[in-house]
Design brief:
alpha/beta; Rossmann fold; 7 strands; about 45% helix; about 20% strand; globular
Amino acid sequence: MKIEEIKKLSREKWLPIIREESAKFLCELVKKQKPRKILEIGTCFGYSGCLMLSQSEDAFLTTIDCDEFAVAQAKKTFFDEGFAARVNVICDDGYSVLESLYKNKLKFDLIFLDGPKGQYFKYLPLLKKILSIGGFLVADDVLFHGYVKQNGPVKHKHRTIVTNLRKFLLDLSNDSNFDFKLLEFEDGVAVAKKISE
């Protein structure tokens, strides 16, 4: 499946892929840092994974998603784009996989977090442990349609996600082991460089 087909399928299935400006930032970061081991939570159809692999020819991607349909499409995308040999696609619960990666003492140079927004804060302690010093954690859509920075009450159906994203951003910004920035273009991108254990 080619990139334009991914965009079309994303619109049809209401499964969002990374926005253009956020994608550009991610590509520039990968191109500059040249990570060897990349972890992605939220594979969707393989779009962002292909973007990252295209910017670092020595990179190997481990990508996780619990949606069987999305994972099947992503595997096809990685094959069609010539990246199949450099990708391990895991169809499972993100937290369970993170626990396994930590137990197996695996480390990553870049982690791209684009899975269920309400789980970001829960993932953070494990992400911190498996991220190499000097590595980057990039989390997409952290402002959640602007609700995270909104003053006043939040709609009931969004309240839990917004509360959890606020906790994630607060935990990240207060952690002295990270050099943290919040980029407020599009739907918000959190960028944290791990500077110490």
